[in-house]
Design goal:
Low-confidence stretches: 1-13, 81-87, 299-311, 313-329, 332-343, 375-382
Shape: globular
Order of helices and strands: HHHHHHHHHHEHHEEH
Biased composition (Low complexity): 317-327
Strand content: under 5%
Protein name: HTH DNA binding domain-containing protein
Distance between the termini: 53 Å
Number of strands: 3
Region (Disordered): 307-330
Number of helices: 13
């Protein structure tokens, strides 16, 4: 990184670009709000799980792969690519298959990199920690991220390193996946002075979206738990609601495995929740039916593979960020904690461990299918 470019970040007073100051103010405010809201929140594990799915979706898009987080959730729950509606050709079905595999690899980088990947993450983290110092953590991270990429570093280890860096510098107290994926769109200028504000706006937008997601989770989960209050003491229905708040889509098989009950009992619980209006079925299938918590579940069509890019656009290229975003954000409003009833969240950790195990099984299955040449074989059945 050139000395003149570092000087740009250290120039005091009128010499500082207003766009840079606006982006920095927005990012700092978004980080502070998200950290305050998520710290010690009982739904933090659920937020982390859903936020990682969304981060994977954003990262895959700029890397040239289109996959919706609901599609990924359906894939984790056992809907094999050949069984998913919406693929209009063998080539498109193969693209969906590869997108699913790529998304699971991106998720692994964020959550549990293998030994070789871990060494790359540590290298990227060292660059973030030892980069040029401006005295401002967000600016230092942005400049160091640019330097890592400029020198040929890969995106995946940088994204994983950013999670650790935010925690190491005290900007966040939870490994929320704020990686600035939108800053790597094809049309973004690669000059440091212009790129840093784009990166800061990108991580700010992610933080704002995750804060909104946390609010939705809190409201949806609290409403669902109140709806099933008063059940007998040994009922597994409240635990089922906990699990469905944590993961976007759930089958009776996964629910049975997580709660240690029979598949028939799990389906009985889900059917009763559907009848009570707490849960909705999102697939309309006769086998491997998937369910989601009302208010937190997608429409049925969303679990189908995403549509192909619009002609004329590069594969997976997102839309341009709206103009005018470079202005300073409004003053920070006082934060009021979300009112929350006293609920029992004891089953959540075990439920998410089951989900992580399901992701590992799905990744292994997709890898095996790829080795067997799945994408070259015609689709059979639906």
């Amino acid at each position: 990184m050139s000395t003149s470019r570092i000087a740009l970040l250290n120039t005091p007073g009128p010499g500082v670009d207003p766009a840079l100051l606006g982006a920095l103010a927005r990012a700092a405010a978004a980080f502070a709000r998200l950290d305050q809201a998520s710290q010690h929140h009982p739904l933090l594990p659920a937020l982390l799980h859903r936020a990682r799915l969304d981060a994977v979706r954003r990262q895959a898009a700029v890397d040239g792969q289109l996959i919706d987080p609901w599609h990924l959730a359906a894939l984790i729950e056992g809907l094999r690519p050949r069984r998913m509606a919406g693929a209009r050709s063998l080539a498109e079905a193969g693209a969906v298959f590869e997108a699913g595999r790529a998304a699971l690899v991106l998720h692994r980088w964020l959550t549990a990199p293998d030994a070789e990947e871990e060494s790359e993450v540590l290298l990227a983290l060292a660059v973030l920690q030892n980069g040029a110092t401006t005295g401002v953590s967000l600016l230092d991270a942005a400049a160091s991220a640019w330097r890592w990429l400029e020198q040929g570093g890969a995106r995946a280890p940088l994204r994983a390193a950013l999670l650790r860096h935010w925690m190491g510098t005290g900007l966040l107290r939870a490994p929320l996946p704020l990686t600035g994926a939108a800053a790597l769109r094809a049309e973004v200028e690669w000059d440091l002075a212009r790129w840093i504000p784009v990166f800061l706006h990108a991580i700010a937008e992610e933080a704002e979206d995750f804060l909104s997601l946390l609010s939705d989770l809190d409201r949806g989960w609290s409403d669902a738990r109140r709806a099933v209050a008063g059940r007998r003491r040994h009922s597994r229905t409240p635990a089922a609601v906990d699990l469905m708040a944590a993961v976007p889509l759930l089958s009776a098989t996964s629910l049975a495995r997580a709660l240690g009950i029979s598949i028939k009992s799990a389906f009985t619980i889900l059917a009763a929740l559907v009848e009570d209006g707490v849960v909705v079925e999102v697939t309309g299938r006769t086998a491997r039916r998937l369910f989601g918590l009302r208010g937190l579940a997608p429409l049925a069509a969303v679990v189908a593979p995403p549509r192909r890019p619009v002609p004329g656009r590069g594969p997976g290229r997102p839309r341009t960020m709206p103009a005018g975003a470079e202005g300073a954000p409004p003053p920070i409003e006082p934060f009021e904690p979300i009112p929350r009833a006293a609920l029992d969240y004891s089953d959540l950790k075990a439920a998410l461990l089951q989900t992580e195990a399901a992701m590992r099984r799905t990744a292994s299955t997709l890898d095996q299918l790829a080795q067997d040449g799945w994408a070259r074989r015609p689709s059979t059945g639906n």
